[in-house]
Amino acid sequence: MPQATLRNMTLELHYWPAIQGRGEFVRLALEAAGAAYVDVARGDAAAGLGMAALQRRLDDARCAHPPFAPPFVKDGDLLVGQTAAILHHLAPELKLVGRSAAARLWTLQIQMTIGDMVDEAHDTHHPIAPGLYYEEQQPEARRRARDFCATRMPKYLRWFERILRQNPAGQRHLVGGRLSYADLSLFQLVEGLRYAFPKAAARVLATTPHVTALHQRVAVLPRVAAYLRSPRRIPFNEQGIFRCYPELDSE
Amino acid sequence: MPQATLRNMTLELHYWPAIQGRGEFVRLALEAAGAAYVDVARGDAAAGLGMAALQRRLDDARCAHPPFAPPFVKDGDLLVGQTAAILHHLAPELKLVGRSAAARLWTLQIQMTIGDMVDEAHDTHHPIAPGLYYEEQQPEARRRARDFCATRMPKYLRWFERILRQNPAGQRHLVGGRLSYADLSLFQLVEGLRYAFPKAAARVLATTPHVTALHQRVAVLPRVAAYLRSPRRIPFNEQGIFRCYPELDSE
Question: Less crowded by CB within 10 Å, the N or C end of chain B?
């Protein structure tokens, strides 16, 4: 991993400029670590940034490692896509993962499962096709969201609860005895679920006290709290993954 | 990574015994490398194997790294879930990934994207809920499958084609100049698409000649070919991820 370049050059984060989306898991890790980065698509076109800069990278016909979709990061000469792979790559330098190969692997595994739940949360409003509007798949969305709230959300959140409960190093963190990017991502996941499904999330989180406590602890970490108050944090909205459609929420 | 234990103890693969599913990506890597492994849930209950053995691991209340779902492997003392994380972990020992951190990361990234496409292929017959039968979500399945065949399948397969075309080390492999687990997984993905969507897959694969050629090359690798002919290869069926429902296929 060319980590030297991460120190020498500013990391570029490439993601859609108007939503938290999957990019937020990367942004949160960078912010929590106090790392310098450029949020490319939100930058000024006059400075060579903006959506055109993101699109140029995505379309580059000479790129050896073309990303499938945002988010992706440019770290020196290395272009890395897939949220969990990005975090796995950046975390040692950001000090957001344990040093052992086993700790890195377990953190990655948890992040991938968070990613699976994020995909399912997305599909509650897009069960048929990502290219159609919500309004074109609303009856199907209601059915899928009902199952998500009743079955999938409890299944996932109870798994995170179990990890915390069974962590030999204590119940404050998902991996070992200190903060990792998986903790930050679980915070973001809970934020999203509470925004999109306030009733269902409250019901399930009442049964997962360790998850709830971890969420509260991450929210008040000084760098995280400062970030959440800053204009760099895009508010949740109905173009993102977590959307507040009351008709999709259920007790 | 406790690779010494992989050499000393037989690796355990835990996956549902009657389908290829996500476990097949792991099985294929182990078979292509000629590695010794026990396919636990397909073993004899009298020998302490079978579904009860898988379930015992899944339910273990003292396990520090409980898997969310099969597939998972037990490699010495280490339990690893999530298909892409399993392959990332096993590949150096199996010699199915390049040695550099950059090669390992790029291979992981491709595998994660293959996994995303597998999820979407699964959701063509289960767009509403994994816990319901196909017959309970058939109208929604038809709609989702139509979009998958028309939009998503070309988008993914053209990305794999582009990776092959833009690979600086040549167009025979996804990563560098030799076989990796990503090549094996792309083979398996094409097999599944051809089984589930023969018409749509033929149409799209006609536009991705490098993907088609890679699939053909993998199929005749001696260990892969021997495995595919063996009783260890479970045939595709309508309980797995790739299901042949003609009403979901389209030209």
Answer: C
Task: Tell if the CB–CB gap between B82 and A151 is shorter than 8 Å.
Answer: no
Band of pLDDT at residue A227, cut at 50, 70 and 90: very high
CB atoms within 10 A of CB A173: 21
Q: Which of B1, B82, B105 sits opposite A101 (nearest CB)?
A: B1
Q: Please state the rounded mean pLDDT for residues B80-89.
A: 98
Q: Under an 8 A CB cutoff, do B64 and A101 touch? A: no
User: Which DSSP symbol is given to A236?
Assistant: P
User: Helices A222-229 & A209-219, crossing angle to 10 degrees?
Assistant: 70
**How far lies B222's CA from each of A23, A75, B174, B225, in Å?**
42, 39, 20, 5
Q: Domain map of chain A by residue range?
A: 3-94, 101-248
Q: Which fold has domain A3-94?
A: Glutaredoxin (3.40.30)
Helices (H), B126-221: 138-147, 153-166, 181-196, 198-205, 209-219
Strand order, beta sheet including B37-39: B37-39, B11-14, B72-75, B78-81
Cα–Cα distance for residue pair B154/A16, rounded to 1 Å: 23
Least CB–CB distance from A78: residue in B78, B102, B119: B102
Angle subtended at Cα A64 by Cα B170 and Cα B25, rounded to the nearest 5 degrees: 75
Residue of A nearest to B166 (CA): A64
Question: How confident is the model over B17-40, as a mean pLDDT?
Answer: 98
Instruction: Tell me the average pLDDT across A202-221.
Output: 98
Tokens of A230: 């800053």
Is the pLDDT at A5 greater than 60? The verdict is: no
Q: Thinking of the domain B101-248, which architecture would CATH place it in?
A: Up-down Bundle (1.20)
Judged by a CB distance cut-off of 8 A, whether residue A59 touches chain B is no
Mutate to test the interface with A, among B77, B86, B109, B151 (most CBs of A within 10 A): B109
